[in-house]
Every structure is written in structure tokens, then in C-alpha cells.
Amino acid sequence: MSEVVREEIGEVITRLVQEYTASEIFEDWDLAGLEAQAAQLWPLSTSLSEVDPTRSDREEIARTLTDDALAAYQRREQELGAELMRFLERQILLQIIDNRWREHLYEMDYLREGIHLRGFAQIDPLVAYKNEGFEMFRELMNSIWEEFTRVIYHVEVTVEPADFEPEPAPAQAVAYSGGGPDQPSALAEAAAGGAAAAGGAAETVPASASPRSARGNGAGAAPENPATVVKADRDKIGRNDPCWCGSGKKFKKCHGA
Fold first, then answer.
1. Torsions phi, psi of 191, nearest 5?
2. 167 DSSP assignment
3. Sign of CA dihedral 196, 200, 201, 202
């Protein structure tokens, strides 16, 4: 990539010089604008204010700017190292191509939608689509390398040492709450079960000792120590038995009504 990059940087500068020196008259050349634009692409260390119109031409100006840009590129490579510079060349170029290519596809779709209108101007839409698509592709390639030239000189790189280890995050104390008198926390039960297994002492817990187990036996499960209820004789009379008051009526028709 190194040689390709240097060639493309020279092409970018040549197109830039042609853009700002399009006129055939030297007084119409925008050398100040050319110098300002070049300074945005790379750290410019030369000046175009002292260009001699009698001895300088476009090729000479392009050669001067190209030498300055390649010298800055060489300093950049010495600063970062050859291996890191090759990595940056690949990654930056791939990222720019990815973004620019998607934009190009949108523009081609837009061109295709309206290319049939060229027929009203007696122009073959197919030929117009090929010509304009080729021009758009050429502009795409030029814009890719122009953006690459701007980015490669100004990208900031932070190199971490090889033995760098990120500091572990501080441990945070997390308090879990849950359960109640009738519903103990599941985390507490799991911790208690793990402690029992680690100690090697397996203990059998009666079903009546755990509220959770008592609920599992059904809603009508009796408690462990039910209270003793003493009933009177009158509480033992059936509804169809004679009433205890001696009226001769059934209990359900008398005092049981």
C-alpha cells in the first residue's frame, strides 16, 4: 500500500493544482486558495506566495507541493512506525471506501430513476446512463483518495504498552431482599443448602417444619400442634335427630334452623 498511497497523493495534488490554476492567465490563478486547501490536507511547510510567474508553471507547482506532502508523509511514518502506518493505510482506506460506496449506490439509483427523461432531449437514455455513471465513478475514486489524504495526516493514534492490563472493576456489595415470615428468601435457602452440602452433613427436615412444605400439602393441611376443641353434647346432635329441648321436632326444624 505504501507505493500506491504515495502515487495517489501525487494525483490528488495534481488535480488540486489544475482546479485552482484552470485559467491560462497567471494573474487569474488562485494560489492563496490553493495553499489554504493544501494546508487542510497535510501540514504544509512551503509557501506559494513567492512563485515566479516567468519560471513556474502548473507542473512546477504540483511538483513542489507533492515533494512537500511526501516529506510530511515520511515524517509521519517515522513517527508511528512502518508497521502501524501500513495498518492505518488499510483500515482508513477500507472505512472510506465503505462509506463512499454506499453513497455512490444511492446516487446511481437516483440517476436511474430519472434517466428516461434524457429521451425528451433526443439523447439515448442508455448511453447517457453509461456516460454519467462513469463520471460519477471517477469522482467517487477521486473523493476517496482526497479524503484518505486528509485523514492519514491528521489521525490521532494512542499506542498502549504491551504489558498494559486494565484495572479490575471494584467489587460492589449487593444486598438482596425478599421473602417474609411465611415466604423465606430463595437466596437464603440456596445458601443454607450449599453450606449443608459443603459440610457433608445432610439433615432431613420434617415437612411440617417448613412453611413452604406445609403449603405444598394443600390449603387444608393441619398445623403441627392443633388446638384441642371440646364440644358439648348438643353440638354432636345431627340435623335429623330430635331436638335436645324436648319439643319433639327435628333439630334442623327447631334450634338448628
1. -65, -40
2. P
3. positive
The candidate with the shortest Cα–Cα distance to 21, out of 10, 30, 32, 11, is 30
> Position 175: which residue type?
A
- List of residues 6+ apart from 94 with CB closer than 8 A: none
**Other Cβ atoms closer than 10 A to 79:** 10
Give DSSP secondary structure letters for 198-240. Answer: HHT---PPPGGG-HHHHHHT-TTPPPSSPPP-PPPGGGG--TT
CA pseudo-torsion sign 227, 233, 234, 238: positive
pTM of the model: 0.58
Residue listed under C-alpha cell 413452604: 212
To which residue does cell 445432610 refer? 202
Q: Which amino acid is at 132?
A: E
Distance CA 173, CA 170 (A): 10
Query: Which residues fall within 8 angstroms of residue 209, CB to CB, at 6 or more apart?
Result: 224
Rounded distance between C-alpha atoms, residue 142 and residue 134, angstroms: 12
Q: Measured at the alpha carbon of residue 106, what is the angle toward residues 102 and 110, in degrees to the nearest 5?
A: 165
Give residue-wise pLDDT tens across range 134-191.
999 999 999 999 999 999 999 888 766 666 566 666 666 555 455 555 555 555 565 5
What the block records as the C-alpha cell of 210 is 417448613
**Close Cβ partners of 44 (under 8 Å, ≥ 6 residues apart):** 35, 38, 65, 68
The cell for 78 is: 517515522
